[in-house]
């Protein structure tokens, strides 16, 4: 007996729940499947045959990986079959990739590592990647790191591009010793604040810069670079693994313009860079050759590498969404690893807040004619409603420390200002861990920008 009206209802129900489409992608050896997934939609990829990798990290056969808000590529050296569930917004296969060139760069670095292993005092390569925005610098860094880790090396990876955070929020400069593989879904992987993860967590050393462009506060940027270089040098001399593996440095696209050349020189000097990998710019390559040739005391090898045709220019709206996602994941985790942040109230009198000094908040128009603007590292800021929805870095320093001391302090973590009551002089903040806010200075800046959608 059929129940009147039930069957059509069920049919409607099954029509409403759309099953994602499943496609099979056969990739021949040496080809790359490039794809883009918008924020808010997800695709799942499983390798069912052969070998495949995402920017140097292998995708094991049979495991499903899900991707959202990403522009990426899967490359195969030997051929593979991919099972794709869901529909990417863009997808195509490319026969032309610079992967051979990138692999050669890796083997050249490996040769230097092998040489360093022969002598107890020799240093492994200190490579730095430079190039314009969206030239594929971070992707190349991941490839070189992934290959080095797969060969048992432990390179120190340094991110000097505040535009994207590595194992931390955007706006930070970080260094981390990589001894385990990257997480293919998460980019670089996870840090201990991200909660349990199938891939071992990495412990990054984090400094907060808070400006997108290294020229935004050159003095602060240079100071943080020097500080990070000191930490990296000490890590590289800690054990034989690190000494021979050397370091790989990712940089900001802003310094690839001629106004940034002095900054390149500063980084090269501080990190004792000996290999400069120039990506996607003939002019930059030739300028660097001119600048760094004939330095017998500190030779720097300048190498030209081709930009991948798959590199995509990421529009500002995409980058903004990436930053918002990074902030949300810092506090709330993501579907596979949810976190429970804590809300607490803090009174203004217990806080010492500094703002990163930027040209825009110094007021050069008030200076007498002819006088040069002296940009401060930080400016003290009275807590107020202006901080609402901002991210603040809690730094490892004392409340009465000077600006210079702050510029040498690592980040303990970040808090989010959920609401501010100017009259009662307190604010509600969201913190990733429970307990009282430690009595440490807080640093606020414009990058990443205030996020309105974090707590509803
Ligand atoms: N071969 C490729 N196929 C598809 N997408 C790619 C490929 N290589 C890089 N991309 C994508 O292109 C974008 C830009 O690449 P990447 O972040 O490596 O550039 P970048 O030079 O580090 O950029 P920026 O200096 O602006 O941070 C990223 O979304 C990256 O995932």
TrEMBL record:
Protein name: Polynucleotide 5'-hydroxyl-kinase GRC3
Clp1 P-loop domain: residues covered: 131-332
Similarity comment: Belongs to the Clp1 family. Clp1 subfamily.
PANTHER family the UniProt entry points to: CLEAVAGE/POLYADENYLATION FACTOR IA SUBUNIT CLP1P, POLYRIBONUCLEOTIDE 5'-HYDROXYL-KINASE CLP1
Gene Ontology molecular functions: ATP binding; polynucleotide 5'-hydroxyl-kinase activity
Domain Clp1 N-terminal: 26-116
InterPro entries linked to this entry: Clp1, Clp1/Grc3, Clp1_C, Clp1_C_sf, Clp1_N, Clp1_N_sf, CLP1_P, P-loop_NTPase
One Pfam family linked to the record: CLP1_N
Entry keywords, A to Z: ATP-binding, mRNA processing, Nucleotide-binding, Nucleus
Record's keyword annotation contains Transferase: no
Organism: Sphaerosporella brunnea
Binding sites annotated in the UniProt record for ATP: 32, 71, 134-139
GO annotation, cellular component aspect: mRNA cleavage factor complex
The Clp1 C-terminal domain, residue ranges: 339-448
Superkingdom of source: Eukaryota
One record GO biological process: mRNA 3'-end processing
